[in-house]
Every structure is written in structure tokens, then in C-alpha cells.
Write a structure and sequence with these properties.
By secondary structure, this protein is α+β, with helices and mostly antiparallel strands. Helix content is 69%, strand content 10%. It has 27 helices and 17 strands. It has a 6-stranded antiparallel β-sheet with strand order 2-1-4-5-8-9. Strands 10-14-15-3-16-17 form a 6-stranded mixed β-sheet, with helices on both faces.
Length: 997
């Protein structure tokens, strides 16, 4: 990091705008920042810190907007800090404006403007600044990432506060730990300690929770086992709890199994007694059933005796019905004959009502003879009906002849009109064909000219396009060539750097006892170390690959440029120098002429086809004209023949129709009369036949009734039963017989009669005995089930307890391991002899690095007398790890840093600050710090020591660093020529740079 320029406006004691040119100050390597007390020397450093991080060091960082603004500033001047700085190879400009309470532009009172932050980067290629961001958060993250350190680290590394390091030298281990923890960000190691402690507590809680669950299962087993189990007097987490619970569970399971065996024996005895009581109850129930059955049979026999008279009447009614069934066919025959006779008589009356009066009274034979006469007359009209149909056809043929005559007259008129204009139409078509043939020849000539114009136009457009592409390809080729040169130079630079640092790369592979590849020595007392920016083989190979890729890209761009130029030359030779617009106009005109000529020529085929069609139509019209004349002569002969035939048929039909309107009407009248006569004859014959059948059925019915024993047919009809009455009567008779048979069967049963002779059955006593036996069985089964459930529950709980013990075993092991680690990192373990916490251990390593780095400068400042060493000895009963001692080479004794004098304390703290700056810089990722500030303390040094300290500070220039000394010492103004003076006054402070080259 290198500071270039700082602009301050209305900040701290500076009422106006002040500028600091750090480039001019840094050119001298060592410069002095001085001024009277309260002038604002520290405010310059505060401005640098505020520009980078948005806050100032120490206690001054609270209430930013109120305390940073200068009281000397004008009301309309806003506080602003702008820093021009180079970080990680990037030149940035950071501008910060804190919150500002200003007067309102309208009205009275004040208003607050929000804080603003701007970040710009200098673009060396364009030679201008470009904006990057205006977000406080983005700018803060970007600066912190580039610097690689927090504000606290920056204030300790770049702005070296000597007072704090003097206190650091004399502080105890705890105070040193707090400062080192802020600088090296060892919070992650403290987080590891806390995480291990949390895991220890969490694992311990899980172990206690598992033990609690195990004890809960033990209590459940005790409840299930009753008094047969005693719980161990142990708490969750106590050793041996799992073994005690599993042992007690095994004893409880054994006792429960013995109780289950006894319950099984009792259940077997109860089942035997329950079976005997059930058999006795079944015997009593059977005897009671038989006694009830005998009593019910006697009652049913008495009811049968009471209904005996009704049963005999039903039997007599059934007997008369069976006799009447023999007369039933004769009755059915007589009813059918009577119905048929009534239907035949009605049909005869209807048929006679349709006949004339002279025919209605005739008998069947007379009606049949009249029907035959009407049929003979109807057959004589068949010839007349054929003649009538032929007359209808003649009328249709006569009409068709007239229609054909009219059609031929229309065709003749149309053909004569068309043939009249034939010569004119043929001449016009031939003229159209000649014009189209001429246009076709003209179109062929224009097609050749149009194709040539199109080729030149396309070449001109390609020429114009390739002209732009050639320019672009030339620029790309130039860029590729420049990029290839840069890549080659970078590769050669990296290769040279690697060759320069190849000693460190070879030293990395050295091992004690193995010969060196260069000198062959087996001892390596001072192997070369890799410096910042060391180039290894991978970096060189990447640069070489980039160079090869750039060369390939340059070759591709040059080949593309040559191809474009070749195509451009070909297009220019084809198109010439004529502009594309002019060629486009010529091509468009030729296209228009060609299109018109081709359109005219396209009518040639249509005109030829139309001429052929017209000639064919001329021939067809002539043929139609001749055919029409022939058909007219034939139609005249046909018309005369049809007229003669029609006259003969009309005379024949007039005679056959008689008084009817037509032959068909006369035939329909005769057909209806013959049909009615035939129907009347059939109806008369059917009526006579049905009367004979009715008379015969009456005789047969009377004879059948007499043979069946009935006095009259009417009596037989009344005795006849229908199907429903017959089924009902038969059902009553069958039910009587079935009941009588059932009663006789029951009264004849040996067991029933024997049971009726015994004393009445005592069912209640037998049932009470069976219930008592069942109750004793249920009690025994319940006891057996309870014992079985007890065994199952104890087995289940024991298995779960055993599973819990097995599952908890890894957790116990993990708890023991985590507890040991937590105690070790917390410094409370017996294995940690020095009682050193993990964070303290890491900080002790960092402090050891700081002490080693500080000793290199402290030896020069003290003329080789003093050396800083790290000590991890315990201080009294406290913890060890962060002790810091100084070794006096004059006495050979190691003593506490608190025994140093004031001047010795100053240069020791200065050496410690510089060493700490180097270590923190390496810790932050190796960010180069080109500008450092050292605050006060030089007044405590004698002249010789001051010269030695200044020599050490001046040696920092060897690394291209600049060091700013903040001091009141007057002698420094003589020794350090480049100076930044802060001058205070009533209107505010100002800065002045002197002693610059």
C-alpha cells in the first residue's frame, strides 16, 4: 500500500481545504510530521484511516458526523476527505463525506445530509478516472479485501502507536492476549474452545438423558414386576448404572416366569371343572326341552279334536270339486261354441249391411253366384285398361318430340350467329400470336443483360462489405500482435524472475544429510528462502501457455485478414469502381423491362391454345347445324304416326268406360262390389256352421253332467272350483294331516315320554353351578394372562434397556473423548501441564514470531545488547504462554521487559511495533506496506541511540518504503529534511511541506 495524496476539508482542526502530497514526502524515504501540541498531527493520520475504513482509531470513532467536523469551518462548507492510494497494484481514489447538519435552504432550522462515499479507479490505458461504486458497504468490503486487514490491524501496523506498545511490553499475559487476539484474529480458536465446551455439555446432557430413559424403563419394569424387583440407588450419569439396571431386570424376569408356570397349572384345573359343569347343564337343558315338547304335543292334539267337523266339511267340498272337474271340458266346449256363434252372426249382419237391398236377403249360395258374375265382368275390362295406359304414353312421346324440336331450333340459331363472326375472331387471334412471339425474343436478350447486371451488383455489395471487414480484421490482427508481444515479454520476465529465484526453488527440495544438486554439500546451514512475489514453475508454464495461445490467435487473425483481402480483390475486379447504388438502379431497370417482356411473351401459349380451340369449335358448330336439319325431317314423320294411333285408342276407351269417368274407375267399382259379395257369402256360411256346433255342444254337456251325478249342468258348474279355491282348500287339508302326523310322532317318541315321566328339571341350579365354574375359569385365565403380560412387558422393557445401553455406549465414549479435548483446550486438563488455552497457544506462536522479527531491529538499535524472547513459563498460579522477556548480552541474564529504562522501553517497543507490522502483514496475505507512521517517543533517546534508531528506520527505504515520524523533538527537524508541518491558528490549522527535492 502506498499513499499518494490526501485532501482534507473541514476535518478536525482544519477549517478549510488542506492537501498532503505523500509522493513528494515518500521520495525522501524518511519524513517528519511535526507541529505544536493540538495543531492536528494525529488528525492527519485519522483522516487516512477515515478515508480507508470510514472511522477513526481508538475512542475518537464514536459520533462520527459530530466530532469529525471542524469547528473552524464555514457553515456552508461540508466535511470531506479524499485519499489517493495504490493498493494491490490498483490506484484508487476514496472520497468520504460524513453526515452533515447544515442550515435549511428555505426557512429556519437545520437539516441533516446523509453520509456519502465514492470510489474511483485510475485507468492507465484511458488516462482517466472511472467510477466503481457509491455504496458504503461495497466500498468497505473492497478496501478491506485489498488491504487484507481490519481497521484495528491497520492502526497497529501502519500507524504505529508507541504508547500502546510500551504498555504491551509491561502488560501481563491477559492484556497481551487481548491485543494479539485483535491483531491476528484468533477468535476462531476461541470459537473452537467454546464449541468443544458446548459439545461436552451437549454430550453430557445426552448421556444423562439416556441414563434418565434407562431409569424410566427400570421404574416401568418395577411397576410391571410388583415387589419382585429392587431398583439400584444410582442417579443418571453415575458409573455402573447400566449394569445394575440390567441385573435387576434379569432377576425380575426369572421371578415372573415362575409365576407364569403356577398360573398355567391353575388354569388347567379350572378348565376341567368348567367342562364338567357345562355337561351337567346341557343334560338338564335337554330334559327340560323334552318335557316342554311332550306338553306342547298334548295341547296340539286337543286343538285337532276341536276342529274335526270343519275338516270333514272341507273333505266333502273337495270331493264335489273333483267330480265337477270331469264336466269341465264339456262346459268349456259349450262356452267356446256359444262365443263363436255370436261372432259369426255379428259378422254376417255387418257384411249384408254393405250390399244393395236386392242382394242383402239372399242366401249363401245366391251371394256366391252374384260374386262370380261380378268377377267375370271385371276380367273383361283388362284390354281397355291397357289401351288407356298406352294413350298416356302417347301424350308423353308427343310432348318429347315437341321439346326436341324447340331445342334444335335454339342450337341452329346459336350456331348460325357464332359462324357469322368466325373470320374476324380468327384474324385477331393470329395477330396476338405474332405479337407474343416477338416479345419472347426480346425477353431472351434482356435475360442475358439482367444476369450480368445482377452479378456486378452482388460483387459491388460484397466489395463494400469486405472493405469494412478488412478494416476490422486489420485492427484485430494489430491487437493480436500487440497482445502476443506483451504475452511474450511477460513470459520472458517471469522466466528471468524464476531463474533469479531458482536458488530458493532448489532449496525447497533440500533435506538434511542429502547432497545439494548444485554444490554437493550434505549440510545446508543457510538455504535460500522464497521472497515475496517468487515465481515458480507453474507460473512460468502458465505464462508460456498464454504466450503460445496469443501467438496462435495472432496467426489466426493474420490468416483471416489475408483471406478477406483476397476476397475483396476478387469482388473489386468483378464489380469495378461503379457504386453499388448505380448498379442497383441499372439492374432494377433491366428487371422491369425483362418482367414486362416476359409477361407479354407468356400470352403466346394461351393465344395458340385459344386459336386451336376456336378452330375445333368452328368444326363442331358446322356438324351441329347439319345434324339438326336431319333430326327435323325425322321428327315430322314421327309426329304424324303418333296422332293416328291416339285417335284409334280414344274411340276404344269411350266404349269401355260406359258411365264412369275412366276405365280404371269402372274397374275399381266392379272390384269393390265383387269383394263385398264374396265376404257376405263367407259370413253367411260361417253363421250356419256355428249354429250347428252350438247345438251339438249343448247335448254333450247335458250327458256329461248326468254321468257325473249332477242333476243339471248348472249344478255341475257351481261345484267346479277355480285354481285359487282349489289350492286353498287343498292347503287346509294338507296342514290338518301334517299336524295330526306330527302330534302322533311326538307322542310316540321314547325319550320324550320317558322325560315326561321324570321330575321337573331344575335349570336355574344347573346354570348357577356352570356360571360359578366359568367365573373361576376366567379368574384363572386372567391370572395366567396377567403373568404372561408381565413376562412380555419385562422382556420388552429389558430388551429396550439393553438396546439403550448399547446405543448409549458410543455416546459415552464420545463424551469421554470430547470432555478430554475440551479440558485440554481450556487448560484445565492434567495433561496440559502449562494450563495454556488453545487461543493462548496460537497467540504464543504468533508472539514468538513477533519477538524474532523485533529482535533483528532491537539488536541494531541497542548496539547488540538486547534481544527479545518469548517465554511460556507460568506466572504464579496463573496460566502460561504469553510471557515476554529481554536478554541483556552484557550480563547474560534474562529479565522482565518492565526493568527497561524509558529510552530502552521506547526503542524496544519500536522494534516490537516494526516486527509486529511485518508479522501482521504476512498474516494478512503478504500485502506490501510502502508507507508507515511512527508516533512519538523519540525524546527519551540520547544522540547515539537516536542515530541508531534513525539508521534502522532509514534502512526501511531499502524495501522502497517511506516512514513518517510523528514527533515534537526539535533535533529531528535538523536530522530529517523532508517535513510535513502542521501549523495551528485562530481560524484553524494548516499544513506545510518543506525540505522536498
Amino acid at each position: 500500500m502506498r499513499l499518494h495524496r490526501l485532501d482534507i476539508t473541514a476535518f478536525g482542526p482544519f477549517g478549510g481545504t488542506q492537501s498532503v502530497d505523500f509522493d513528494a514526502l515518500s521520495a525522501a524515504g524518511l519524513f517528519l510530521l511535526h507541529g505544536p501540541t493540538g495543531a492536528g498531527k494525529t488528525s492527519v493520520l485519522d483522516a487516512v484511516c477515515y478515508a480507508l475504513y470510514g472511522s477513526v482509531p481508538g475512542a475518537r470513532q464514536s459520533a462520527q458526523g459530530a466530532t469529525l467536523r471542524s469547528d473552524h469551518a464555514a457553515a456552508g462548507t461540508r466535511t470531506q476527505v479524499t485519499l489517493d492510494v495504490t493498493v494491490a497494484g490498483r490506484r484508487l481514489e476514496i472520497t468520504r463525506l460524513p453526515p452533515w447538519e447544515r442550515p435549511k435552504k428555505r426557512g429556519t432550522g437545520t437539516t441533516v445530509d446523509k453520509a456519502q462515499t465514492w470510489l474511483r479507479e485510475y485507468d492507465a490505458t484511458a488516462g482517466a478516472w472511472k467510477d466503481l461504486s457509491r455504496s458504503h458497504q461495497e466500498i468497505g468490503e473492497e478496501i478491506t479485501q485489498l488491504l487484507g486487514m481490519s481497521r484495528e490491524q491497520f492502526c497497529q501496523v501502519v500507524l504505529l502507536p508507541q504508547g500502546e506498545f510500551a504498555r504491551f511490553l509491561r502488560a501481563d499475559a491477559e492484556a497481551r492476549g487481548k491485543l494479539l487476539g485483535r491483531l491476528f484474529d484468533t477468535q476462531r480458536f476461541a470459537d473452537v474452545e467454546r464449541r468443544l465446551a458446548d459439545r461436552r455439555r451437549a454430550t453430557e446432557a445426552q448421556v444423562r438423558e439416556g441414563d434418565a430413559a434407562l431409569l424410566a424403563d427400570a421404574h416401568r419394569m418395577q411397576q410391571a414386576a410388583g415387589d419382585a424387583m429392587e431398583l439400584p440407588a444410582l442417579a443418571p450419569g453415575d458409573p455402573g448404572l447400566a449394569e445394575a439396571v440390567l441385573t435387576a431386570a434379569a432377576v425380575a424376569r426369572s421371578t415372573a416366569r415362575e409365576q407364569l408356570t403356577v398360573a398355567h397349572c391353575r388354569l388347567t384345573a379350572a378348565e376341567t371343572a368348567r367342562a364338567a359343569a357345562a355337561r351337567a347343564l346341557d343334560d338338564v337343558r335337554e330334559r327340560a326341552r323334552l318335557q316342554r315338547r311332550f306338553a306342547e304335543a298334548r295341547q296340539r292334539a286337543e286343538r285337532l279334536d276341536e276342529r274335526a267337523g270343519a275338516h270333514r266339511a272341507a273333505q266333502e267340498r273337495m270331493e264335489r270339486g273333483r267330480k265337477a272337474e270331469t264336466v269341465a271340458p264339456a262346459l268349456a266346449l259349450r262356452e267356446a261354441a256359444d262365443a263363436e256363434h255370436r261372432r259369426a252372426t255379428a259378422a254376417d249382419a255387418r257384411a249384408r249391411a254393405l250390399l244393395p237391398e236386392d242382394s242383402a236377403q239372399a242366401g249363401p249360395a245366391g251371394l256366391a253366384a252374384a260374386a262370380r258374375r261380378a268377377a267375370e265382368e271385371l276380367g273383361g275390362l283388362e284390354s281397355a285398361r291397357r289401351a288407356e295406359r298406352r294413350l298416356t304414353h302417347l301424350a308423353a312421346e308427343r310432348a318429347e318430340v315437341d321439346r326436341q324440336a324447340r331445342a334444335d331450333e335454339d342450337q341452329l340459331h346459336d350456331a348460325e350467329g357464332w359462324l357469322a363472326g368466325w373470320d374476324t375472331a380468327r384474324a385477331a387471334l393470329r395477330a396476338r400470336i405474332e405479337a407474343a412471339q416477338e416479345a419472347a425474343g426480346r425477353a431472351e436478350q434482356l435475360a442475358v443483360r439482367r444476369e450480368s447486371a445482377r452479378t456486378r451488383l452482388e460483387a459491388a455489395r460484397t466489395r463494400d462489405r469486405l472493405t469494412g471487414e478488412a478494416a476490422q480484421a486489420q485492427r484485430s490482427a494489430l491487437d493480436s500482435a500487440e497482445h502476443a508481444v506483451r504475452a511474450r515479454n511477460r513470459w520472458l520476465d517471469l522466466k528471468e524472475q524464476r531463474l533469479n529465484g531458482i536458488a530458493a526453488e532448489l532449496a525447497a527440495g533440500l533435506t538434511d544429510g542429502a547432497p545439494c544438486a548444485v554444490c554437493g554439500a550434505t549440510e545446508h546451514p543457510a538455504p535460500a528462502r522464497k521472497v515475496a512475489g517468487h515465481v515458480d514453475r507453474a507460473a512460468e508454464e502458465r505464462a508460456q501457455t498464454d504466450h503460445q495461445d496469443a501467438e496462435e490467435q495472432r496467426a489466426r487473425d493474420e490468416r483471416r485478414l489475408a483471406a478477406v483481402r483476397e476476397a475483396l480483390a476478387a469482388a473489386t475486379a468483378e464489380a469495378g469502381d461503379a457504386p453499388a447504388a448505380q448498379l442497383a438502379g441499372e439492374a432494377a431497370e433491366l428487371e422491369r423491362l425483362f418482367t414486362r417482356a416476359r409477361g407479354e411473351a407468356s400470352a403466346l401459349h394461351a393465344a395458340q391454345v385459344e386459336l386451336r380451340t376456336a378452330e375445333e369449335e368452328h368444326g363442331r358448330r358446322l356438324a351441329v347445324l347439319r345434324q339438326a336439319e336431319v333430326r327435323a325431317a325425322a321428327r315430322q314423320t314421327r309426329r304424324e304416326n303418333l296422332d293416328r294411333e291416339r285417335a284409334a285408342l280414344e274411340a276404344e276407351l269411350a266404349e269401355a268406360r260406359g258411365g264412369a269417368g275412366s276405365v280404371a274407375a269402372r274397374a275399381a267399382e266392379l272390384e269393390r262390389h265383387a269383394s263385398r259379395l264374396a265376404e257376405a257369402a263367407d259370413a253367411a256360411r260361417a253363421a250356419e256352421e256355428s249354429a250347428e256346433r252350438l247345438k251339438d255342444a249343448d247335448g254333450r254337456l247335458a250327458e256329461a253332467a248326468f254321468r257325473a251325478g249332477f242333476e243339471t249342468p248348472r249344478a255341475a258348474s257351481d261345484a267346479l272350483l277355480d285354481d285359487a279355491a282349489h289350492r286353498d282348500l287343498q292347503h287346509r287339508l294338507d296342514a290338518w294331516h301334517a299336524e295330526e302326523a306330527a302330534v302322533r310322532a311326538v307322542l310316540a317318541e321314547t325319550d320324550t315320554v320317558a322325560a315326561a315321566g321324570q321330575p321337573p328339571a331344575d335349570l336355574a341350579a344347573a346354570q348357577a353351578a356352570a356360571e360359578a365354574a366359568g367365573r373361576r375359569l376366567r379368574e384363572a385365565a386372567s391370572a395366567r394372562d396377567a403373568a404372561a403380560r408381565r413376562c412380555a412387558e419385562l422382556d420388552r422393557l429389558s430388551a429396550r434397556a439393553a438396546t439403550g445401553v448399547r446405543r448409549l455406549a458410543p455416546l459415552r465414549t464420545q463424551y469421554d473423548r470430547v470432555a478430554r479435548l475440551a479440558a485440554l483446550t481450556a487448560g484445565t486438563s492434567a495433561d496440559n501441564e502449562r494450563r495454556m488455552r488453545l487461543e493462548s497457544y496460537v497467540l504464543a506462536a504468533r508472539l514468538e514470531q513477533v519477538a524474532a522479527a523485533a529482535t533483528a531491529r532491537l539488536g541494531r538499535m541497542s548496539s547488540g545488547r538486547y534481544t527479545l524472547v518469548h517465554s511460556d513459563d507460568r506466572a504464579g498460579r496463573g496460566r502460561s504462554g504469553l510471557g515476554l522477556h529481554v536478554v541483556d548480552a552484557w550480563t547474560g541474564r534474562e529479565r522482565d521487559t518492565a526493568t527497561l529504562s524509558g529510552g530502552e522501553t521506547f526503542f524496544a517497543s519500536l522494534a516490537l511495533a516494526l516486527g509486529l507490522a511485518d508479522v501482521v502483514t504476512d498474516e494478512a496475505g503478504g500485502v506490501r506496506l510502502d508507507t508507515l507512521f511512527i508516533d512519538e517517543g523519540f525524546g527519551s533517546l540520547d544522540d547515539q541511540t537516536l542515530d541508531e534508531v534513525l539508521d534502522v528506520l532509514d534502512s526501511l527505504r531499502e524495501r522502497d518504503r517511506s516512514v513518517g515520524i510523528v514527533s515534537h523533538v526539535a533535533d529531528l527537524r535538523r536530522r530529517v529534511h523532508a517535513q510535513l508541518e502542521v501549523v495551528k491558528g485562530r481560524s484553524g490549522s494548516s499544513v506545510r511541506q518543506t525540505g522536498l527535492a
